[in-house]
Amino acid sequence: MSSKSETLSISKLQAKSTASIAGRVLSIRTLGKICFLTLEDFTGQIQVVLSQPELIETAQSMAPQSIVQVEGEVLQIPQPQQPQQLELQAPSLELIQK
């Protein structure tokens, strides 16, 4: 993983930016050619979207509670009647601790 950007806490993320975050995997869901991770750090949670086959394979081999670092684009999910919901579309995933 390249260290182009500083690792941020989830609460510091802003839509339409590129960010690197690290946290604990709470859940892993695979739907066809896409995989969703729910990632948590001490400030909150975020959904991480993986679409590259090698990253999906890595995610499927992880156990919940694994520690990972991901880097990618932060996007706002349109959610009516809910506060701002963000997701991170990650072309980069590093397993720190299984």
Question: Could you list some keywords that capture this structure?
Answer:
98 residues, mainly beta, 6 strands
Distance between the termini: 17 Å
What fraction strand?
A: over 45%
Uncertain segments are none
Number of helices: 1
What percent of residues adopt helix (DSSP H or I)? under 10%
Largest beta-sheet characterization:
5 strands, mixed, barrel
What is the radius of gyration? Answer: 12 Å
3D architecture notes:
The chain is mainly beta and 98 residues long. The chain is built from one helix and six strands; from the N terminus they run ββββαββ. The chain has one helix at 53-61, and strands spanning 7-8, 17-31, 34-41, 44-50, 67-77, 85-97. Strands 2-3-4-6-5 form a five-stranded mixed β-barrel. A hairpin with a 2-residue loop joins β2 and β3 (34-41). The longest helix is centred in the middle third of the chain and has 9 residues, at 53-61. It is globular, with a radius of gyration of 12 Å. The two termini are 17 Å apart. The model has no long low-confidence stretch (mean pLDDT 88).
